[in-house]
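Friendly challenge for the regulars: who can give me the structure tokens for this chain first? No prize, just bragging rights.
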Amino acid sequence: MPYTAAQRALLQRHFSVVDGAEHADIYLVRNVPQEVAATLNGVYSRSSKSMRDQFLERLEQGLAATGRSLDGYIEKAAGGDTLTELMADKAGQFLKTYAIDHGHNSLREGSIVHLAIERVSQLVTRFIQRERRCTFEESSTRYISFSAETHWRDPEVVAGGGDPLAAYDAILAETFALYRELNDSLLVYLQQIRPRQKDEKEAPWLRTLKAEAFDASRYLLTPAIYTKWGMVADARTLSDVITELMSHPLPEFRTVGQRIREEAEKALPTLLAHARESQFLQHQHVTLRRLADDLRLRPAPAALTRANEGHVTLLRHDQDLDVRLLASMLFEHATTPFSAICDRVRALTTPQREKLLDEVMAARGKHDAWPAGLEGGDPFEFEVLLDFGAYRDIARHRKGFQQQQSLTVEHGFAVPPLVDAAGQGARYREVLERAATLQQKVAANFPQAAAYVTPFAFLQRVRIVFEPRQLDYFVELRSGPEGHFSYRKVAIDMFTHMQQATPLFARYVRAKLGDAFLGRMQNEQTADERREKRMQAAGDA
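First reply, four minutes later:
Bragging rights claimed.
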């Protein structure tokens, strides 16, 4: 439809294209309140009009209701807040009817919020960041010092007082004091044994040594340490996260859930109507823990053991995976049933299968993922015993399914080789052994709050299920020499299992098996040049 000058001026503010193409009319929606944007998205299925025309119609209806005209609005409008005033009521009514009352959750996915979440514990952070539908960016314990941070003191432990509180505070004080000391002493040690070479730039050399020192010293941090992170989520996902938090038995979780809701409602006043505590989730927290005790699945910790750090067990995989993966790649380009494709691939010789896959993978570039069809194979299921610090990094691979057991001291703790090499091993062990004893005093009265004071060094079991394409991505990324030695070992061990389970496809996994320190140093030495090239390219563009 032809637009007036006033309409055109308004549309240019909120849409990147006013006069669209006859085919593939694509434009950016901008400077529009989130719930208004969700409404515009939702009315597509109930109107033949374009989003631009729907926007104008709803705005003009809002203006008419207040006795104003579009021309007057153009002259005085300041942006989003004015749109909210004029359009939010109708948007809210629409969303309440369809997204809330009728349960059309796809409408809630059209509203996105960006939250900054700061001064929260690592424990609640890990719980929230299990959510696979969000985007997170968090402060790294590998690249920055946490020496200036403080800790969460569980209010129920504080209210209880006595020996559990004394033990809680003692763990925080003693482990954090050693963390601070190790940050400095390990760096000095590394500077002595790895002096800067003539061809090495000072800044990348120092970054490399600091990262290696932080890799070891972070084992003394506890999940009570404060962190900060950004979160981008749609209203549907955010509602689920808030409900899970507000239904949790730990007070911090409920507080964080309530505050997320209060802030998100400023942008999404309608769409978080169902974000509240759930009796069903509360029941699960109590009942499943009781059943685990009844079945003796939570034995009392014995004396500290030294477990195999990073031990990876392959629980399950498809014995016919090479055949099924090749068949899955071919399926979309065939017309025969999947079983017939599998039979045809199974009849090929090993060299024939290799030749077929070589042809498919020949053009794969450095940053190309495996073909999408390789998600069509049955997943690999692993159980891994590893430290909490390493799990923080592995848990970011949310495309796979992951489960984390309760934090405990019963599996023992890891000792980074650098700590022993620098002559700090005895002190390190002494502090963690005392932390284990004190942690049990907290756990006797507050079993869930005790997780806050279980240092990163202590091992836990996690269950990880990756489909083959995601496993390739994980191994290629996390086996990199710049990675933490603990999760790097997990990635390499998973690759070893993959070689045994699917030898054909394992040939195309670009696992990095070289020396970690030299690889990290080389990566840091060229990082500045790569960054400058990207900035130059962006400037040219």
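The chain is about 55% helix and 10% strand. Residues 94-103 have pLDDT under 50 and may be disordered. Your move, everyone else.
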